[in-house]
Amino acid sequence: MKRVSWSSLDASERVQALRRPAQQASADTRTAVATLIEEVRARGDVAVRELTERFDQVSMDALAVTDAECAAAATALTPALRDAIDEAAGRIEAFHREGMTREYAMDTAPGVRCERVLRPIARVGLYVPAGSAPLPSTALMLGVPARLAGCRDVVLCTPPRPDGSADPTVLYAAMRCGVRQVFKVGGVQAIAAMAFGTASVPKCDKLFGPGNGYVTEAKRQVSMVEGGAAIDMPAGPSEVLVIADAGANPAFVAADLLSQAEHGPDSQVLLLSDDAALIDAVAEQLERQLAMLSRAGVARRALESSRLIQVDTLQQAFDISNAYAPEHLILALRDARAWLSQVEAAGSVFLGDWAPEALGDYCSGTNHVLPTSGAARYVGGLNVASFQVAITVQEVSRDGIAAIGPCAVELATAEGLDAHRLAVALRLDEVAA
Amino acid sequence: MKRVSWSSLDASERVQALRRPAQQASADTRTAVATLIEEVRARGDVAVRELTERFDQVSMDALAVTDAECAAAATALTPALRDAIDEAAGRIEAFHREGMTREYAMDTAPGVRCERVLRPIARVGLYVPAGSAPLPSTALMLGVPARLAGCRDVVLCTPPRPDGSADPTVLYAAMRCGVRQVFKVGGVQAIAAMAFGTASVPKCDKLFGPGNGYVTEAKRQVSMVEGGAAIDMPAGPSEVLVIADAGANPAFVAADLLSQAEHGPDSQVLLLSDDAALIDAVAEQLERQLAMLSRAGVARRALESSRLIQVDTLQQAFDISNAYAPEHLILALRDARAWLSQVEAAGSVFLGDWAPEALGDYCSGTNHVLPTSGAARYVGGLNVASFQVAITVQEVSRDGIAAIGPCAVELATAEGLDAHRLAVALRLDEVAA
């Protein structure tokens, strides 16, 4: 892991130190993904089955998970795992429910009632990857807010296992969220099927969830096409930035860095500290803990493009962090709470020594689908509002238009929009008559 | 305007009847826009000045509007127009303030405090077009929520007039919203300048506002590029759908259809009614009112791709409207309020005979930047949250991790993520010790 001292870097070295690994799909990937999407769009389930055979090495008959499979999933899990899923779902639901957008109404003038009403997005598609391992936590993070929003059709796609079944942990988590339409389809074919619909898979208005580079590129492409689907947010590799002071626990900090690094070789982890000894100790701990990890190879590759950065002051660390806008920000500081006000852009923040990022991934209650690649500068993580549309409403009486109509006439005149003016003026005439 | 009876249409004719005019930019447009963006990105202000000379036929020295120009703008307006802008700004501010997202905090378990905090997007860019006419109302619709959000840098670009000045109405509206950085730059060059920054124009994190096809394509392109800027929402031509019953006022309905049609030749307006006589009367009123409009040519072209649709029942009209997901939905119904619950997807809804869509454009208080092209199925209009990021926070004590740590360990184990498990387990060991 490269170690640098921020003050010793010139401007271009600083840019370089915070540069994320290149993320845009290659031209080859783009073309390949476009071809796959077109196949699914043109030939529906037939293409989905062919691609599943090609990429998942399994020949599928029915793509939909049956009720019997769902029932069997619950019994396949240990009670401890079922309890853990239930417990996590409960806290995620509590936190998300409390943050729900509210409807409201107010009179902006006598006789002019303006409102915001909320509606669930009718048809949503959730993607739960299962590349290196199944991700029941992702099913919860997508399924809980979809249920709170009240979406009518909630579709979930997850890759089949070699025997053609779906992972029971993912199924159990999906059921826990009330998801009834689960399909054993993965990768680009899943995204295309949900975006355009097939005989089996319903067409969805908006797609959610993480995935590998192909899935991410597929989501990008279907969101660009007329008749495609919207997507939750621009996705990129996972990342964490830790700001630690001299009092931080080096083993904890190293563990937090590694838990991000193990996500993938393109994950990026950054440590910023004003204490050289702490950085030394973390570097030592990284090596020690790497030896204990099953995914050490992946983590080691991620660490190659990561940085240990020594700063002069903690304020400097916050300036760097705000410029970088990390997905996860851990404040391993003695007075983390007081420093929170300095955070301008981050997906989710973890305060103090006892808040590892892994808690947010699973069960603190916050969502783990968060903005990556610096998108935290302009967008927040997934929440119930991501599954809803807000509609504004105005109800106007005769008194109402008499009160505000002249204002509209004046502005329409200034903008040279005759018909706008006329639509108001006709009514004002009628009210005056 | 084409007139159809919904029941007499087969499935493909129904699709055709609701088809929007093609909206994706041509390959030529895309290439042209990409070239212009690249010029601005590479050569900054020099390119902006050249393009301004080419497209706006004016040679600009300073691009920034001076304080003196702002001061002069206020006095250039009639008192009535100043008052109208102030009045509209007041109601827009009141409605948007009431709908602001709130911060919240809760304990999801003993010792686990989860929160949502809000931060303004630091640097936002507002685009206010001035093609056929200046649009001070757009300056209000963008500037008011940006101010409420507390954005640090609010940049506004608007095309220069032939004499090199900015429209005083737009300037006055911008000042009313506290916007201090106004640039006389329009079109693709404005979008590129705000996305990438030039010596004069600050680089922005997110761009807002409507524009012609070139501006829309430029926004799309800069939002796709690493190092570019986010954008408010997918933009398309304006549209209105009116559902009217036998009791509706045909002159009002026709005026509302025309006030959308005059926006541009690609605007789309739809009337749905269960009453043939009302449709006849509206058709007659359309012809009569067209004769009174300065922009009759534009409106007439828009009407060519628009429809008068006779439905069997009002419920059928709502089914059609929900499938279409119009930007503006006018319910010219005797019991409009009761029908609101049937609306699943629309940008903004206008209830009853006295709520012309023009009121929403200017001064009811709601925002007029709304989802077009069916995007109302998955996104709402502009609001203060569009200018903010929500950050989740978790603060965990020793008791907190003792309470929820085992749940995270169980799930990390199920997902095969060792380092995640370890980050929690190390702390649990320490707590237990």
From TrEMBL, chains A, B:
Its name, as the record gives it, is Histidinol dehydrogenase
Domain of life per record: Bacteria
Quick one: which residues bind substrate? 238, 260, 263, 328, 361, 415, 420
User: Recorded E.C. number(s)?
Assistant: 1.1.1.23
A molecular function (GO) held by this record is: histidinol dehydrogenase activity
GO CC, sorted alphabetically, is: cytosol
Binding residues annotated for NAD(+), in chain numbering: 127, 189, 212
Q: In which pathway does it act?
A: Amino-acid biosynthesis; L-histidine biosynthesis; L-histidine from 5-phospho-alpha-D-ribose 1-diphosphate: step 9/9
Q: Which residues form the active site?
A: 327 (proton acceptor), 328 (proton acceptor)
- Name the needed cofactors: Zn(2+)
Q: Which GO terms describe its biological process?
A: L-histidine biosynthetic process
Keywords assigned:
Amino-acid biosynthesis, Histidine biosynthesis, Metal-binding, NAD, Oxidoreductase, Zinc
